[in-house]
């Protein structure tokens, strides 16, 4: 699966759908391993991406393979935004996390909260040391903006630790103190049909931006408003699609 988008330089971007699609194919083979083994290997890969990316040569077949797998960058006629391995690692950790929840549901909130605290601790250590673990995107000063300006292309250890740490703590919070009904009505369909939301939201934003002549002209405030409007518009669609997925548990809808 490839997200095809042509920026001014004419390159085809290999991004979210490319990384997720290839990861699905790889997981079809990895799932033969135990879920906990898959999860542990995912953690290992998170830390292995940066040294592997540093080994990618500047030219030749290994450059092509390395760029597709671990290092983002131009690869005409493509430009790799999301190399496979870092995002496969996150999918693998999710697979293992689901098994932890299945084996010990009562203890899961405490365990996922501990994982969140550990992840944020890893973020603070590596971002504070300002060296390895940041994919060469180092802090220029001690400001909050610089602390949060972590590498996503490809994702660094600090990016993974920050994003997953926050997500795991929120998950633990919602498991212990369920959100109010109105919030659950928004978060649950979005969370359980996230891929479906992704496929729609970018196109909706792009079409609306062009129709309203706001594409590339509006500021940050308009961006926040646009995001809120898109979420409001798509929540009913995601709710309906979630119902369809639940009614057809063995259909291809489970992957979207």
- The N- to C-terminal Cα distance equals 12 Å
Q: How many domains, as an integer?
A: 3
Report on the biggest sheet. Answer: 3 strands, mixed
- Tell me the β content: under 5%
Which spans have pLDDT < 50 for at least 5 consecutive residues? 1-5
Cα shape? globular
Number of strands: 3
Report the total helices.
10
Main sheet: strand order: 1-3-2
- What's the helix-strand series? EHHHEEHHHHHHH
Percentage of residues in helical conformation:
55-70%
Radius of gyration: 20 Å
Oligomer: single chain
* Sheet/helix structural class: mainly alpha
Give the rounded overall mean pLDDT. Answer: 91
Report on the architecture of this protein.
The structure is a single chain. This protein has 256 residues and is mostly helical. It has 3 domains: 1-103, no CATH class; 105-178; 181-256, no CATH class. The protein is built from 10 helices and 3 strands. A 3-stranded mixed sheet has the order 1-3-2. Mean pLDDT is 91; it is low at 1-5.
